[in-house]
Amino acid sequence: MTRRDLRLERRRRRRVNQIGYGVVVAVLVAVAVAFAVTLAAG
Fold this sequence. Notes:
By secondary structure, the chain is an all-alpha fold. It is built from 1 helix and no strands. It has one domain. The chain crosses the membrane at residues 21-41.
């Protein structure tokens, strides 16, 4: 692999990471909301 290929691969991976981070953030927010609702109901 040439250096240019590595750079392209890194850029592609970053886009995939952004989608992954979005999913992770959504899950964390959902867990936090469920936890807060459980504490409020508790």
